[in-house]
Predict the structure.
Amino acid sequence: MMTLHACFPDKFEVSVVYVDPSMGKSAKNIHCDYSAICFAGWARNTLWIDMDMERRPPTQICRDVITMYKKYVPNCIGCESNGFQSMLAENLAKMLRESGLGNVNIFEHNNTINKVLRISETLDPYLERGEIKILDNDGGRLLLEQLRDFPNGIHDDGPDSVQGAITLIMKYLAKEEQ
């Protein structure tokens, strides 16, 4: 059972911010996808999620990723880079430097596996074990709705972003074990 939580742990073993940009679409069109900015932190054998989902232009996506980065100071930022989305990582790196944060590790990820299969295979084990906790905010409530509707819902931007974040966290944890 997925539930929303009011607070997070003070420390995480590893944490990331992952963005599914959904760029270039009208912020006013309710049928357009959301850009999903996901903070994910691994602590106490649980994945803690802070989600920010809105319809917004590319420059605002970068600003909001930087805000999330400053809030949590994660190990890295991951960015979906299919097609035109690859431009976001370049703009984000530039804006991070301009904001005084230096050279932040940004990992671009080009998804090639079927989305429903990829999201299901990654998220299902954590959901079944109750190992995902979502921060109670507007983005968290929207994520919970999208997770409940998946794979038959209209939007899956939140689950897609969480999947990317989990994949990045597991890569970090695997490196630490070596």
Observations:
- Residues 14 and 42 are 6 Å apart (CA to CA).
- The mean pLDDT is 90.
- Residues 12-177 form a domain with the Nucleotidyltransferase; domain 5 fold (CATH 3.30.420.240).
